[in-house]
Amino acid sequence: MDLGEFNQLSSDDARASLRPCLDVDRWIDGVVAARPFSSVEAALEAARTSAAPLTDDEINQAMSHHPRIGEKAKGSSAEAAHSSREQAGLGALDGSVQDRLAAGNAAYEERFDRVFLIRAAGRDPEEILAELERRMTNTDTAELAEVGEQLIQIATLRLEGILA
């Protein structure tokens, strides 16, 4: 779909097209209410600002749709398809990188009680591993804020893909 088609969708259809980007009602409502957009960049700006910052509950709800980094998304949902495309840039991970990601994911989950979430698009495995290690030193509050920012970055990229 293009921007013109998105602008013309009914509110319910627009909401349905946005939900796989970020399953947060407040964000979806904000983007839908901001239509019609004059440009894709205006739509992306609305995506970046409509829910910032996300609440703890919104983050927890949205996180339920994200697989571990380095793992293939399960199922055939729109969220799984988005995730597979986003992580495709990582390529085939060699054994040592896969092992380091698995160990890092396990340590992160032990520390923060959630999967490690990062915008994978445009990042290589070494950059993701470095970010994982850096974020392990975050306080719980700082990490929750980073997770919220990553969710918004992912949502914006997904919306851009929908409107392309």
Automatic annotation (TrEMBL):
MF terms (GO), sorted A to Z: 2-oxo-4-hydroxy-4-carboxy-5-ureidoimidazoline decarboxylase activity
EC number(s) on file: 4.1.1.97
Keywords: Decarboxylase, Lyase, Purine metabolism
UniProt KW Ligase keyword: no
Top-level EC class: lyase
Chemical reaction(s) catalysed: 5-hydroxy-2-oxo-4-ureido-2,5-dihydro-1H-imidazole-5-carboxylate + H(+) = (S)-allantoin + CO2
Residues covered by the Oxo-4-hydroxy-4-carboxy-5-ureidoimidazoline decarboxylase domain: 7-160
Pathway as given in its UniProt record: Purine metabolism; urate degradation; (S)-allantoin from urate: step 3/3
KW Cytoplasm (keyword) present: no
Record Pfam families: OHCU_decarbox
Top-level lineage group: Bacteria
InterPro entries: OHCU_decarboxylase (IPR018020), OHCU_decarboxylase-2 (IPR017595), OHCU_decarboxylase_sf (IPR036778)
GO biological process: purine nucleobase metabolic process; urate catabolic process
NCBIfam families, A to Z: PRK13798.1 (NF010372), UraD_2 (TIGR03180)
Protein name in UniProt: 2-oxo-4-hydroxy-4-carboxy-5-ureidoimidazoline decarboxylase
